[in-house]
Amino acid sequence: MKFVERGIAVVAAALILSGCIKVDQTISINPDGSGTLDMIYGMSEQTIAQMEAMEQMAAGMKEEGLEAESDSPLDFDEAEVRKKFAEEKPEGVQLLDVSSESREGWKYMKVKLAFDDLDSLKNTEFFEDSELTLTRNAEGNYVLAQKLGPDATGLPGSPAGSEDAQGMDEKAMQAMAAMFAGLRIAMTVAVPGEIIETNATQVEGNRASWVYDIDKDPQILSKLGGQEELRLVFSGKGLDL
Fold it and tell me: Considering only CA atoms, which of 54, 68, 42 is closest in space to residue 17?
């Protein structure tokens, strides 16, 4: 299940080939450490048709002995999503629901997973490169962190220690901003304790969200391609995750 294996990591990388995309991802953590992952992702039907044509072309090249990538980074077929999940059977993760809908020229997929604990998500490639961690600090509170960076997003980053190179990369990404008009990625975490501290862009009760909307902030390509870290500290009172 490619979209589950790579998640936000391939979403950003896919933009270069497939145009704008919308993603809404929510992780809900229960008091016992288990939880659910809800994801909604959408792409224009025209772009999907173009990607399918490219896949068919790539498959033909493969038959002729030529190297080509034939896998799409996102699946928009419910049956294919269920089939891939059944084949892979990631330990500690269950597929609860898959559905799709089309509206205003866009196709949206809704996927819901249940996980035994956050470590179970690491059994897939979904968070493989995002360095998702949950630790307990000296005060007994929990610290949830997820690094994005070039390795996690697939976007161009800057060589370590090179401010000039970083500046050039950021300028280049700003120049590409017009290509990604409509891009919106929202990552939400709902935690079982009171939120004490976070760098989220939105906080409501025990829910924190990081929203990257290029129409409102052209700098998001730099953020997703840099060393962005999503960080949240919540109360550990009565919890043993």
Answer: 54
Cα 94 to Cα 126, 188, 210: the distances in Å are 14, 20, 25
185: left (phi over 0), alpha (psi -120 to 50) or beta: beta
pLDDT at 132: 84
Collect the ranges in the chain with pLDDT lower than 50: 1-10, 12-13, 15-18, 66-73, 150-168
- In the numeric block, which tokens belong to residue 121? 């998500």
The beta strands (E) that lie in the chain are given as 22-29, 35-44, 93-103, 106-115, 133-136, 142-147, 184-190, 195-198, 202-204, 207-213, 229-234
Radius of gyration of the chain from its Cα atoms, rounded to whole angstroms: 19
Work out the end-to-end distance of the chain between its first and last CA atoms, rounded to an integer number of angstroms.
28
Nearest C-alpha neighbor of 230 from the set 190, 188, 192, 191: 188
What is the model's pLDDT at position 143? 97
The pLDDT of residue 176 is 59
Residue type, 190: A
Give the pLDDT confidence score for residue 214 in this predicted structure: 76
pTM of the model: 0.75
pLDDT at 225: 56
CA–CA gap between residue 193 and residue 134 (Å, rounded): 13
CB-count burial class (<10 Å; 0-12, 13-18, 19+) for 123: middle
